[in-house]
Amino acid sequence: MLSRYLLRFGALGYLALLLLIPLGMVFYRAFEHGFAPAWDAITSPEAVHALWLTVLVALIAVPLNTVFGVVCALLIVRGHIRGKGILNALVDLPLALSPVVVGLALLLLYGRTGWLGPWLDDHGVQVVFALPGLVLATIFVSLPFVVREVVPVLREIGTEQEQAASTLGASALQIFRRVTLPAIRWGVVYGVVLTTARCLGEFGAVSVISGHIAGKTETLTQYVQAQYDGFNVPGAYAASVVLALLSVVTLVAMTAFRRKEEI
Amino acid sequence: MGIAVQGISKQFGAFAALEDVSIEVEGGSLSALLGPSGSGKSTLLRVIAGLERPDSGRVLLDGKDVTAIAPQRRGVGFVFQHYAAFRHMTVYENVAFGLRIRKRPRAEIKKRVDELLQLVQLEAFAKRYPAQLSGGQRQRMGLARALAVDPAVLLLDEPFGALDARVRKELRIWLRRLHDETHTTTLIVTHDQEEAMDVADQIVLMNHGRVEQTGNPRELYEDPANEFVMGFVGPVNRIGESYIRPHDFELQLHPNGDSTEAMVERLVHLGFEVRVELVRGDGEQLSVQISRDEAHELELERGQIVYVRPLRERTFAED
After folding, report:
1. What's A83's domain CATH number?
2. Staple partner for B276: which of A218, A248, B27, B288, CB 3.0–4.6 Å?
3. Residue among B192, B224, B212, B202 nearest B81 (CA)
């Protein structure tokens, strides 16, 4: 009995020390001087733009990674292709690689002196220090989540339901839409939530490739850092609160879905 | 609509699941693919359905070569051992699936599904999900789902294999009645010889990816082609080169011509019959089945000496 309480206390204490207390401090400091300065800080044009840019990048990256993730999971589990193992391993690369390296790699490829940069420049496409670069970096770092959530679910449901549907006359597309997709839906949803959280919170890769142009290529995470570096500490905290709230919303959504799945 | 399989071979890696298999299933009949696990019977059924692609050979449905045709367009109904129920759909939606795919009018779908649910006695469960059904109910739903699209051929892969003995028996009697009403050409895969004999007009007995014998239950039992068939379709004693069924012995209390002496080791009461486990002087064991009345007359008991004589025996030429 005692050891169980100790264990529970230890786990909660650990979480409190590492997560809850620091996060609480952020909230406390943001509203230390009242609500007005915090509100001013997050309604400044730069802050609003940063928030919008963050959401926009997520709105592009999440659907793309969802489609890619589901297709990729289908290939890994159901595909009869060579190099499935390599594909499976490559999907995990973004988890293993530091985001800063990802940013640098994109810079080397698409930058002014990079392989593709000059050619794209000639054709009027700017990737680095612009929206496409931010989207690419974000897609890269948030790539594995949908795949990793959907693969085990696909394995678990097996192929019999799909075979049954095929003997009943359903085409490949009908099987996917009416049988496979409904069966994996909670895995997809869970993956989407994780992908969204990762997209909103991404800092390293985006930081390298964005160029930190306030009001132009600055996402919310970078805005927080810029405010902090510029000694606008309340502004930094206030923006952090916005980020934290976005995370809380995704977390609540995730828990809600998870609970539904258990029923 | 008949099924013909001609020279089908199928290899899984180094394992030959089917080797040059040819079978013929008469239209309107109920036939069984019988064999031990790993004999290739399920693979053959899946080849007929188009779920597995053979390495060589042809599948003909109603005389038409369908080897290259996708399962969607073969017009077969398939019932899976583990039901393959669409878990996110209700019983009604499961049964309606094939009709919805065929874009039939709503009213027609409803009429047909209600009819089938009544046939499989699941009217009261239309709004339930598969997870809320028992195994037997799920399999009846699987059957209704397969029958909904009026398949020319009904294929069942160990349909009762996951059910308990009582439900199995009920369902197979029910399946036989259903077949007698609809006369849909039906092929059922089973490893249970009793089930095959009970339900099928014709049995194809398979072993190691080959057909050992095809015939009606009586032919297989009375006139087995080889010792594998003899041993698979019923219990058998082997004495030297002879194979003798347990009920093909005569038991006597006194020596009589060519009878052999043996000791009663165990008596097993099976209801109408009694199985007598004997051990001969040379240590050879025999299993003999006699009627309850005969056992009573002989007043058999453990340790008693009896004289046993085969009435009918069978030998097979060495291949």
Report:
1. 1.10.3720.10
2. B288
3. B192
